[in-house]
Amino acid sequence: MRKAMARHILVKTEAEAQQLKQRLLNGEAFDVLARKHSTCPSGKKGGDLGEVRPGQMVRSIDQAIFKKPLREIHGPIKSQFGYHLLQVFYRE
């Protein structure tokens, strides 16, 4: 079965996600921003989602994890929980 390792930052607004994405692109550390801003419990672990398999995440995030290029910052991606910034490290 396929699997991937990813991390994300979840925030309430698209504007906040855009601001954080710009900070990431300017070189700020993903894990530090996740701990400070993410509303997801994974934020305490720097946004680390660990290994995920297809179907474990909401559809929009699942598709990004298994189809978007590796090691790039993707998003904002909208879900029923808010707006996500996502980075995928590997896929098998």
TrEMBL record:
<keyword id="KW-0413">Isomerase</keyword>
<dbReference type="InterPro" id="IPR000297">
    <property type="entry name" value="PPIase_PpiC"/>
</dbReference>
<dbReference type="InterPro" id="IPR023058">
    <property type="entry name" value="PPIase_PpiC_CS"/>
</dbReference>
<comment type="function">
    <text>PPIases accelerate the folding of proteins. It prefers amino acid residues with hydrophobic side chains like leucine and phenylalanine in the P1 position of the peptides substrates.</text>
</comment>
<keyword id="KW-0963">Cytoplasm</keyword>
<keyword id="KW-0697">Rotamase</keyword>
<dbReference type="Pfam" id="PF00639">
    <property type="entry name" value="Rotamase"/>
</dbReference>
<comment type="similarity">
    <text>Belongs to the PpiC/parvulin rotamase family.</text>
</comment>
<dbReference type="GO" id="GO:0005737">
    <property type="term" value="C:cytoplasm"/>
</dbReference>
<dbReference type="InterPro" id="IPR046357">
    <property type="entry name" value="PPIase_dom_sf"/>
</dbReference>
<feature type="domain" description="PpiC">
    <location>
        <begin position="1"/>
        <end position="90"/>
    </location>
</feature>
<dbReference type="InterPro" id="IPR052204">
    <property type="entry name" value="PpiC/parvulin_rotamase"/>
</dbReference>
<protein>
    <recommendedName>
        <fullName>Peptidyl-prolyl cis-trans isomerase C</fullName>
        <ecNumber>5.2.1.8</ecNumber>
    </recommendedName>
</protein>
<dbReference type="GO" id="GO:0003755">
    <property type="term" value="F:peptidyl-prolyl cis-trans isomerase activity"/>
</dbReference>
